[in-house]
Amino acid sequence: MKENISLKAYNTFGIDARAKFFFELKKREELSSLAHFNSFHDKSLILGGGSNILLCKDFDGLVILNSLKGIELIKEDENEVYLKVAAGEVWHDLVSYTIARSWGGLENLSLIPGRVGASPMQNIGAYGVELKDVFYELEAWDKETEQVVVFNKEQCQFAYRESIFKKELRGKHIILSISLVLSKKPKINIEYGAIAETLKLMKVENPTIKDVSDAVIAIRSSKLPNPKEIGNAGSFFKNPVVDLKLVKELQGKYPSLPVYTVDEKCAKLPAAWLIEQAGWKGKSFGNYGVHKNQALVLVNYGGAKGEDIKNLAHSIQADVFSKFGIEISPEVNFI
Fold it and tell me: Is 235 a catalytic residue?
């Protein structure tokens, strides 16, 4: 157990907030003794890669860095493999691990920052694929009962960037591992975003999952700044799902508005397009701002406070609502 520790190295925004207490969890067995520490129940925060949080002030409690490691093949048949992955594994390392073995399902999720334990929290997704598409179950430590419990896909209540762990069970469990079902006979998915176009530029005609991963990495690298160079949490806002009636009204004013139909009543709109049209892309406010290449990304150029970036996010939300009548919600959790 450490005290008064800077969390700058543990969040991709690079915010220099401090934790009153800090503990790195490397073994499940440590949870039993950790549970007797007062702040464990009163006020604790579980950290993985720190890629989906914005630290707005010092944390007056216990920060637990989940560093549980291990990848285990549970079972397989001629079509599928079942993998159990510890929560502290780096997500992209897991993707690379599966691609090297020709197991399909995660290639569209390449280069998403963070650790495995955070993936079910918000049902991570990119380029037409979400975690729920390959999810089987997870193990979690119930902080109240001090027991390991198992959640299947239905119990996780996955939705767009949502799960039960962001709602009713927020802060009540520590995710220990997730289990995934991957395909030995992968179906290539290149319909979303610029994957097909990028593969053409790469002169790939019959793409493998490795080709798809390479294309996704190229796209993400061109759009998103490296957190090691510029502090950020990737996409800051969710793409809003809105009523088709409003979509038609907006298309009358903005013919170039990109629209992705969800069903007969709703469509998804790119938050990046809305933010850019509102004039925020590339705006800088000293040591923080909106990235010049991607309006979805808020950045810390160095030394910014979490509260500054939080206020910027609120200003963007208010402006987008004022101009388009659409509420955009943050993916990032404010701490």
Answer: yes
